[in-house]
Amino acid sequence: MGMEVRMHGGGNMRQPSRGREAAAGGAPLGPSGSSSRGTDGLGVVAVWLSSLSALIYFLTSYGIKNHVLLLVQTFRKALGLLR
Amino acid sequence: MIILASVFYLIACMDIATILARSIALHPLYEEMVPRFLAWVVFFFATFLGGFYVLGDINLATNLPVVDPRYGSVIVLVALVLLGLVFRGRVASLLSLGGSISRGRPAGLQGSSLRDGLGRGLPAVTLITFSLIALMLIVGFPRGFEPQAYHLPIGLYISQAKSLKIWDTAYMHTFPANTSLYFGFLLGFMSEHLVAAAGLVFLLPLVGAVYELGRATGADRTASLLTALGLVTIPMIAFSSFEAGPDVAGAAFLAMAAYFAIVNAEKCPCHQMLSGLAAGLAFGFKSLHVVSIAFLLGLILWRVWRKSRGDGFSRRVWGMGGATVIFLGAVLAMSGFWLVRNYVQLGNPVYPVHLPVVFDALGWTKAPDIDYVERGALQFEWVRSSSEWLVYPWVEWHYIGENFKHSSGLGPFFAATVPVSCLMGLGGVIARKGREWPMLASLLSGGLCVLLVWWVVGDHQPRYFMGALVFLVPLVAWTVSLTSGRSRQVLEYLVMLCILIGLSIIFSKQLMEAGASFIYARQFTRQTFYSYPAMIDRLPPGSTVVNLGERIWNYALFGRIHHNRVLSYSEASRLFEQPPTDADQASEPGHVTFYLASAPLSQMGSTHVFTVGSPNVQHDDCILLHEIDRLERDPVVQTILPEPQVLYEIQYCQTHKH
Fold first, then answer.
1. What is the per-residue pLDDT across B362-399, written as a single tens digit (0 to 9) for each?
2. Which pLDDT does position B327 carry in this prediction?
3. Residue B191, helix vs strand vs coil
4. What pTM value is reported for the model?
5. Which of B47, B3, B1 is nearest to B21 (CA)?
6. Rounded to an integer, what distance in angstroms lies between the CA atom of residue B432 and that of residue A27?
7. A32 domain-assigned
8. Three-class DSSP category at B594
9. Rounded alpha-carbon distances, angstroms, from residue B463 to B38, B459, B544
10. DSSP B618
């Protein structure tokens, strides 16, 4: 079926995928970036879409808005009680 | 004695799990620590709950009160002896330190590329946040509406009656009760304070399974770790884990079932078995996971079929038959008891579920107290129209502003990453991208399958699609792994920011709750925490309290040391509530009238009646209700309660005197 679960770490499990984790246990991979799959075009699209999605969330979510309001109210109440 | 038996039962279950997990460790998958841990968790809970299923079967067949850790200890002792015979001479080495479950290489944090600044601290920040929340939970008592209404009361009923028979026939009390078994067992030998945080335990295997599912898509460790950490910041999951409920446990076992089904299930029957065991356990916690179980069976069969494409037709069919028997056999071993119990007691193995034509033909009963049409309207707690579900992750509306709780809210991590990852994953599948596309297709199909059934069934509560998260969230790991260089950096920081905001939401909400409960209201005792008449804790042993209050009081009424018996609100209503007359409706709409008949009350050994508000309680001439306690003000802050609570002692006439 063309799919194989790769093994990670020590060569007994998943093999690093096309250069990703080339330095499994060695050179840093994360935020400084090294996951080179030759798919950066798609990756850039993913970053833009995720950023847009996050922005929309923070602008439109009643959850965030109500939670911040609740925090402010509670803080004021707590201050009032302390006085 | 019961404490000793419970501790022995736990230790024996751990030993059995260790032996079984080690016995399959020859497969290379188990060189890694996380898969070994997941296999151990599945075997542990399969043994722990399996022992009770055996006792439950005996109880069902003979009516003997045997569901008790003492008898359970005998069962696991027999299992240990049998294992000793099977692994002659190897048990000691399997249990030895060298063979411990932690022998494998850690695949989690070690080797993670979250090595700089904020990233390095993220797992620690998450761990500290949840540890602090655990401390806040431990100060209090088990919480959550459904846990107090029935999961915990059923657990205590099982301990008291030593029976796994149905507590009462209200439809919500007839579901599989792994949650009640787990929490009831813990309540039997440890402090209620510790039990309050016992739901957090299931986050560990959930995180581990989602991490491994992420890895299975070909994602690197950083991406998989970020994804697993992001999952626990989803409010619905985090807040569910703070309650003594079934949702996180169900999701955790479903994630493990998916992991073992997806990772090489066609290559090793042990994976099919582990997947089946985990799926059966998931069903026992949350029966709606039956949808995912059917999907996983289909997935395993598809993979076995594809793997054997060089073989002849009959050989391929035999292969599929074998996989079906192993997977379904394991599922039924872990879920069969609940099916048998409901069939024997209620005439329908999947009661209260009812498929009109098929079940009518089979003669399987229909629950009289569930109205699927009415349940369709429940969605308006979260959305203002059905189409709003399409944007729910970005809107998170709630009709009374409870946007983040055990049943509400998907949080910033989900909104920022999961929908985008689904799109990217779909693109990857269509383009047959890399070697991972069948894995992506499996996860996408699983998630969409759950969402589709959720949509079709019509009971649109967000937590009912929690099963879909198990399949869809790991796609985030794959999407993060798509990026490189600056894109990767930006995406990782975005995900980390969302995780930190998610953690701060969860932590601050718990802090506010703890502050309100313990600093402001000083609810340090059980009576003040649940706010009930103090006399409940001082009733003579063996007292039976009839709950005419509300469902949520079921658990509180068991008393501080759980020495009371409780007739649940739903059963009491069924027995004693009078249908309102037209005159009642006109004068006092919504006012409830109970008529207490002495014969059934006496027959059930009822000694006390508990009411909330001012229901109209009438009774026959053979009963006198003597008020022995009343709570009209909050016990600590002394504010007037909206509805007074009254505890009556029942005095029977000579005819019904015990």
1. 999 999 888 777 777 889 999 999 999 999 999 999 99
2. 96
3. coil
4. 0.90
5. B47
6. 30
7. no
8. strand
9. 24, 11, 34
10. E
- What per-residue confidence (pLDDT) applies to B52? 97
* Element spanning B401, H or E: none
B 276-315 residues with CB < 8 A to A: 303, 306-307
Burial (CB count <10 Å: 0-12, 13-18, 19+), residue B572: buried
Give the structural domain span for A65: 40-82
Domain count, chain A: 1
Please state, in angstroms and rounded to a whole number, the distance separating the CA atoms of residues B141 and B124: 26
* Confidence (pLDDT) at B634: 80
* Chain A CB contacts of B400 below 8 Å: none
Taking the CA of residue A31 and the nearest CA in chain B, the distance in Å comes to 4
ipTM given for this complex: 0.89
Bridge partners (DSSP) listed for residue B544: B565
Domain positions in chain B are 1-107, 108-482, 528-656
Enumerate residue ranges in chain B where pLDDT < 50: 97-113
Residues present in chain A in total = 83
- Strand B623-633 and strand B616-619: the pairing is unpaired
pLDDT of residue A19 exceeding 50:
no
Q: Does A77 map to a domain?
A: yes
Looking at the DSSP bridge assignments, the partners of residue B566 are B545
Could you identify the residue written with the tokens 């993060």? B480
Put simply, whether A73 touches B (Cβ < 8 Å) is no
Question: Rounded to an integer, what distance in angstroms lies between the CA atom of residue B346 and that of residue B76?
Answer: 30
Q: How far is B284 from chain A (nearest CA, A)?
A: 30
SS3 content of chain A, % helix, strand, coil (to 5): 50, 0, 50
What length is written for chain B? 658
